[in-house]
Amino acid sequence: MKYVLHIIKYxxxxxxxxxAIWYLSLCDVPxxxxxxxxxxxxxxxxxxxxxxxxxxxxxxLRRHSTISWRKILLLAxxxxxxxxxxxxxxxxxxxxxxxxxxxLDFIANSIGCTLALVIGTLWVKCRGKx
Length: 130
Hints:
The structure is a single chain. This protein is mainly α. It has five helices and no strands.
């Protein structure tokens, strides 16, 4: 419990975005005019995970003077991808047909996380914060 409170205290925006992703992933999505744009949901998934992982990077870098690449890979890349897979499984099995889990959504989420990893790594290298 102490670790959870630590995470909430030092990563508040990341936690807020993660809660938003969970909510948006499990609630019914209303039909909009953009629903007819090809692959709009995949772009949305990519951007959601890209922004979330970038925020994790920013909050991590604000708190640490040196980088533990193991921690940053775990927090800002692997954990969001794992969460994404869990959410796709939950969508497929626990939403009474309102949502469906898709491999392409998982791939789009993973692309967003990986783009954030590339951006974060380049940012660190350019700023010399290693």
